[in-house]
Amino acid sequence: MTTIPAPPVAVIAAPSGLARLLQLVPWFVVAGLPLVLPGYEPLAMQVFVMILFALSLDLLVGYAGIVTLGHAGLFGMGAYTAGILSVHGVTDPIVTALAAMVVAALTGLVFGAAMLRTKGLTLLMLTMAAAFLLYEIANKATGLTGGEDGLQGVSFTPVLGLFAFDFRGKTAFFYSLVALFLVFTFVRILINSPFGWSLRGIRENDARMVAIGCPILQRRVVAYVISAALAGLAGALQAQTTQFVALHSLSFELSGNILIMLILGGSGRLYGAFVGVPAFMFAQDLLAKQDPANWFLGQGIILIAMVMLAPGGMLGIAERAMAAIKRRLS
Amino acid sequence: MTGTATLETQSLNMSFGSVPIINDVTFTLRPGERRALIGPNGAGKTTFVNLLTGRLHPSSGSVLLNGHDITEVGEARRIRMGIGRTFQITSLFPKLTVRENVFLAVAECEGIASRLFRSAFHHGAQVARVDELVHRVGLGDVANTQAQFLPYGRQRLLEIAIALALRPKILLLDEPAAGIPTAESHVILDIIATLPKEIAVLLIDHDMDLVFRFAQQISVLVQGSILVEGAPRDIAADPRVREVYLGDSKHGLPAAA
């Protein structure tokens, strides 16, 4: 059995002002990409949406220790909420995104309150079952969702009434980048809060948390609802930037893929999503186009290799390399 | 709620399947009391503590706090009512540092643990309390070390820091000195001595030297029943107690005074 190595020690201490400013640099670099690489906006915004989705999952898997194979259920709820609202005349992107978050959060509350009394394999099965349930409902309710054909005729008015979604994807690019930045900032505040630390405590030793007086079910449900709202936002962004909602957005395949992307990057590290998602999508783009069947083989090999050889994901490898270099130098 | 608390059990029974573990135990722990619970291995001492803290549910009988029946109150709530404990088998957050371990307990105790939007390190008063507790149990030099890398004896001290962080009115110490070299077990007594006088402390330990230096009162649990209770001198002289421990040199009682 390989054990997952500890995430880097996050000592309770404040980062310096300069360190904070430096952390903003990559965001500006990315925001400048359309100038250097025009034409990649549609691909980039897909990556942003998936990173946002993976971040919402990291809150559960990496911090609260809740492993789920049904996270697409919440993503899809957000996507369908935004899509269905737009078909019925509510077309403001921000209003529909907020509505999607609320619907996904409520879904998370109902399923979370029922499922989170369990843990481990039982919980994994329940999350899967819950997502299958939502998938089947969307599949059968063709009048509302379009069923297998997907939801057609989705369109949104300009963001803030100013920036129309253009076919080159410039607006969508910046819109999803800003959303990702806000969510990243929010999640980072959350994981450093006392609440975030109590989630780590539950992940590490839930029985001990009970014995220090922590209402762990309540804490886990709150984490699940927050994560659900963020997954719903990712779904809404997907609907808004692609102007289409497919049944795939609720699928087991998506639930599995997002978990693989997170594990690939490294869970419980906040930045794992930023590494794993592009790496996975790049590999998918490279391999799947040549031979879709072999892509699944490649995906399997990647997953086995990560779990066997690099349980901390790509960031885990980087951390160990840095530690080795430090040892060499000292 | 007042600063002091009396913890009682009335006719407490507990069995695993058909095997009785705790037999009709009626027991009282008063404010400020320093009581030890001793007994041979398998006497049911840890089970008894688990019944007091709500980790286990009794087959019959009741647990009372200040006269209120708390038999149906869950473990987490009993902790919040002031019943603190340490575990016989060390139970920590292995991948978190010493300070972070203590912070979790302080945060729960002071009701800030569900705060979402303010960084943990900006809670100055709580962080100061964490550092005070870490130093009080003598772990200042390893404050930023992950708990899993501490030697076992120091993990035991971290257990105690976590229990103290919860501001217990009643403190149940389940073999706190197990794994601590005998020569250093006085550290435990030193820490207990820093506690406010009105806190009731129940100590379970096999180290009779420690027990007799600590206790004002001793309860002897044998095969799930209280055999005898009394002052240390009387317990040491009691022939039934001596019989129970006879031939068990490791747990030898000090000579009768």
Task: Explain the overall architecture.
The complex is a heterodimer of chains A (330) and B (257). Chain A is an all-alpha fold. Chain A has 15 helices and no strands. Chain A has helices at 17-31, 33-36, 41-64, 71-87, 93-115, 120-140, 142-145, 170-192, 194-204, 206-210, 216-242, 252-265, 272-288, 292-309, 313-329. In chain A, helix 4 (71-87) runs parallel beside helix 6 (120-140). Chain B has 257 residues and is α/β, with parallel strands linked by helices. Chain B contains nine helices and ten strands. Chain B has helices at residues 45-53, 75-80, 98-109, 124-136, 152-165, 186-193, 208-214, 232-237, 239-245; strands spanning 7-16, 19-29, 34-38, 60-65, 68-69, 83-86, 170-174, 200-204, 217-222, 225-230. In chain B, helix 6 (186-193) links the parallel strand 7 and strand 8. The model of chain B has no long low-confidence stretch (mean pLDDT 86). The chains are: A mainly alpha (330), B alpha/beta (257). Chain A binds chain B through residues 6-7, 9, 11-14, 189-190, 192-198, 200-201, 204-205, 207-216, 219, 222, and chain B through 53, 55, 75-77, 79-80, 85, 87, 91-97, 99-100, 103-105, 107-109, 112-123, 126-127, 144, 146, 148, 162, 165-166.
